[in-house]
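Model: You mentioned two targets. I'll fold them one after the other.
Researcher: Yes, keep them separate.
Model: Target one:
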Amino acid sequence: MTRLRIVIGAFCAAATLTTVQAATAKSDYDPTADFTTFHTFSIKAGTPAATPWGQKAIEEAVSAELGTKGLTPAAEHPDLLVFTHVRRSVEKQIDFQTWGYRTWGGYGTTTGRVIEYPVGTLIVDLVRASDDALVWRGSVSDVLPSKQEKVAKLVPKAVAKLFKKYPPSAAK
């Protein structure tokens, strides 16, 4: 019976962690903006990552992804200004497990635990340079791995997911 509890507990913990680790990406845009007129961009200071190399990785991934969309970097007179905002938070998940028979005074036990995990959120704002109007905003959130090397590998994947629907289609 103890072995069965361990197996079921391990399965529940694994299922919990896999549901937590799915990256989510969302975006919204100004429906009046003509995205065919944007050809160049420049990355500007937003809310930086905790480390300079983290910020550099984000900016490189954003530049590469915009490059795949046909945009080129421009130091002077860009069509779009790109602002990145990084946030790190700690999320909590409460997990309850009940074992046994609990009706009419029967035996059983319930255990509860709180699982804390770090979540990173990247928000990218695309602002039309001619009038400083926000034309597109995307955000992606994911559970942060504990090792810096894994975070570095996560950034390009998260940014690719973020820009998956850019430029937006004409119909929303």
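Model: Target two:
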Amino acid sequence: MASYVYDPQSCELVPKDEYYANKWAAQANAVSDLPSPYIRSDIKPYQSPVTGKIVDGRAERREDLARSGCREVDPSEYKPIYRNYEFCQARRLPYMGDAIPPPMTRDEKEWVKERKLKAKPPAPPADPVKYERSKPNLAPILKDIRKAKDA
């Protein structure tokens, strides 16, 4: 059994497949390959680390780099240098320091833990909160109920 859809242009019922095929074909022709242009915002003003002048905008940045004989570092050129051995071991990163320190002995590890504990003052014990259950004052409520019964 075929499904039909109302076509507002022809004002009649049209098979569903035909209607949507025509509609999508019209939309495909109307849409460009580039749905919206790419607009890059200007950079925020900053102080040049080389000249010390305020650089405001991309054009000034290019001029400042050219005047000072500098260039941008490509992300593929950047190689971070890690000099903390424990940091590298914990994150499985390459160690770039001068010499690899020997691993800590058990006594050294305990000494470090004790030193950290001594550096932090112990937290004061929390005062326990005492809750007391009070009896509700039902006298005014009972008076109202008795007055309602008498009336």
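Researcher: Noted. Anything on target two?
Model: The chain is about 40% helix and 10% strand.
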